User: What shape does this take?
Amino acid sequence: MLMYIIGGVIVVVLAIVVLTYNGLISKRNSVQDAWAQIDVQLKRRYDLIPNLVETVKGYMKYEKGVMTQITSLRSSLMSGSIQDRATANNALSQTLKSLFAVAENYPDLKASETYKNLQQELANTEDRISFVRTSYNDYVLQYNNAIQQFPGNVFAGPMGFKKYDFFQAPEEEKAAIKVDLTGDAAAGQQATPPSSKPKQKKTGQPAQGSAGK
Assistant: This one.
């Protein structure tokens, strides 16, 4: 009888181990699959940025600073930790919004089909990133809970299951994003194209550029 009891206990323990292990594997695979979808969209955004920079730099002669910032953030999209890439992605979104706002001052650029297509492609890509980020974070929450709760916490460490980061930037990092649209413009030059409006005589009021818009 004792042997049957011991045998039964062993069977139950093995069943718990197998079910827990398989459950953790399934949850980890869901996280990795969701991350792969984010990675695809980040790569798409990464590939679109050079075309955007090439298209607008011929029009935006006074926005060299923002062009440099966009290029720098682009390089961070495909390297670093998940949090690093999330921070770069959020910063890039803010910088692109500022760039598109400034582009309103350039009628010729706004009329460019290439620019309009790139703007739409980047907007669509950002929407896709937002959508798959939600799924990814949901799967990360389920997985992290599973490895921290019993019985998963008993087996997670020995079996090599580690916590995943969420794809989001800390609030303080998102709040700290500042965009300098004055770039390398010479002192006294406005960030709007000379052709956008006639020159005016200087007054006692400082000229308002695109910075801070």
Observations:
- The chain has a mean pLDDT of 80.
- Residues 87 and 171 are 10 Å apart (CA to CA).
